[in-house]
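$ ./design --mode recover --in tokens.txt
reading tokens...
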């Protein structure tokens, strides 16, 4: 049976190869694609605790800097002065090609902030000289809670859309500059590896692929969801299930006030209501009840289990379903091995874990803790985000096709402003109507009264 199907697959692949070559051949004649580098694979360094980064060369002569991969912002920011926790920094007065533009800027995050000056310089990728581009750089001159003791990076590579760029959207982000110069196609993909502890834990072998998708980074199909709005990578959650329970309230609550895919955030953040539901639904039995304190849910205390046992014996998987696009419906199966973080402290006979899920005021943020289980495709060209099973993970995280979605997924979008404006408008109309219906009879009565008592007299 297996062999039989194996042969079928080979034949099908052969046929599709022949078809593909026949169909794609004419496109090779397109002139403007001639210098297009197909894809550039950049090695991702770092780890979950300290952030994932890539290295670039900046300036002339080149200085090597490492940049945190951040799909939740849009500036390329580089430490340009000595600071706490910054081991090396970009020495802009040593670069012949650096231009200072004089504008100052300040960027604040949920945690931390930085201030600096806007400039520009040449950026190239080690090993891919053809992909050098002139790009805006935010030179970080002072910062607070951005760089940490163990982080091995000196800046941020903001990969989101220009509208989020500071001080305004006239600052072209790095990836947009590459695409505008036709260096790569308008698509990139990320795999943040989660290497098993025994292969020397701290290093990961992730990739940031500029310009496309690499087949060696995933198994099975890529399933897509629509990008709802192009600022952050905003998507729409349509359903969530944990064990036998599923989110039965309005699906707009899942996206209150937005849902974004953000490699620059570590945890999974959920709107308060959704977080409370997750809290009630996550445990499989009452075995760990006395350990699941408020402190555990606030991620300040660990839960400990017998060494050698699996967290999935005690906790459920979380299944997150997304809005469909072009008949593709995707759900992410997030196992407890992904959302619980193994604590570094060792104690005889037990393993301890911290929760990687938090409650948030700023919507759902699907951070690195979830993303490191998958291969993610930021297909900006077709305005969609793809997820595929990763070739670089030890957990049972899985991308699956969503079944039986009965509703129109767009009803799940959270649109606070438009809704309240609509309600206000509606209220205004009602008041006007009430006013008119009261005043017309009153005016008529007044007219009658005037006629009777003043004019007739
Ligand atoms: C560059 O500026 C720093 C201070 O910002 C200074 O210490 C250093 O000597 C300068 N280097 C050059 C080559 O001018
Ligand atoms: C991903 O892997 C899971 C488990 O191995 C499998 O059931 C699922 O079909 C795979 N997903 C895709 C899209 O191939
Ligand atoms: C959400 O998922 C559950 C379990 O898979 C399913 O029973 C339910 O119908 C889904 N809800 C919607 C609105 O699709």
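writing sequence...
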């Amino acid at each position: 049976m297996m062999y039989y199907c194996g042969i079928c697959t080979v034949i099908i692949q052969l046929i599709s190869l022949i078809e593909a070559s026949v169909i794609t051949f004419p496109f090779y004649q397109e002139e403007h694609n001639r210098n297009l580098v197909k894809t550039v694979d950049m090695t991702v360094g770092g780890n979950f605790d300290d952030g994932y980064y890539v290295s670039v060369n900046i300036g002339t002569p080149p200085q090597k800097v490492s940049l945190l991969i951040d799909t939740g912002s849009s500036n390329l920011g580089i430490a340009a002065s000595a600071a706490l926790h910054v081991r090396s920094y970009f020495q802009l007065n040593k670069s012949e090609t650096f231009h200072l533009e004089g504008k100052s800027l300040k960027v604040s995050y949920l945690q931390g902030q930085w201030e600096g000056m806007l400039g520009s310089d040449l950026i190239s990728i080690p090993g891919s000289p053809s992909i050098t581009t002139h790009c805006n750089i935010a030179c970080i001159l002072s910062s607070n809670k951005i760089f940490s003791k163990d982080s091995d990076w000196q800046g941020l590579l903001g990969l989101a859309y220009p509208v989020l760029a500071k001080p305004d959207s006239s600052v072209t982000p790095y990836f947009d500059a590459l695409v505008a110069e036709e260096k790569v196609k308008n698509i990139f993909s990320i795999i943040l590896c989660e290497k098993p502890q025994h292969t020397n834990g701290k290093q990961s072998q992730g990739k940031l692929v500029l310009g496309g998708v690499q087949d060696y980074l995933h198994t099975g199909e890529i399933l897509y969801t629509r990008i709802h709005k192009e600022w952050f990578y905003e998507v729409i959650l349509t359903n969530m299930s944990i064990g036998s329970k599923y989110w039965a309230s309005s699906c707009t609550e899942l996206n209150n006030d937005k849902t974004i895919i953000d490699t620059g955030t570590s945890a999974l953040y959920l709107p308060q209501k959704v977080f409370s539901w997750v809290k009630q639904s996550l445990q499989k039995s009452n075995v760990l009840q006395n350990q699941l304190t408020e402190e555990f849910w606030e991620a300040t205390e660990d839960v400990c289990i017998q060494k050698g046992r699996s967290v999935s014996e005690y906790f459920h998987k979380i299944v997150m379903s997304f809005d469909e696009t072009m008949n593709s419906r995707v759900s992410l199966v997030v196992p407890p091995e992904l959302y619980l973080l193994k604590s570094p402290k060792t104690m005889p006979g037990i393993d301890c874990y911290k929760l990687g899920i938090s409650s948030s005021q700023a919507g759902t943020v699907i951070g690195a803790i979830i993303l490191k289980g998958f291969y993610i495709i930021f297909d900006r060209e077709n305005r969609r985000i793809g997820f595929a099973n990763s070739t670089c993970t030890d957990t049972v995280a899985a991308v699956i096709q969503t079944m039986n979605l009965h509703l129109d997924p767009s009803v799940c979008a959270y649109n606070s402003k438009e809704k309240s404006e609509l309600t206000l408008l509606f209220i205004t109309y009602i008041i006007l109507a009430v006013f008119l219906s009261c005043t017309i009879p009153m005016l008529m009565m007044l007219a009658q009264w005037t006629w009777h008592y003043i004019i007739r007299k």
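exit 0
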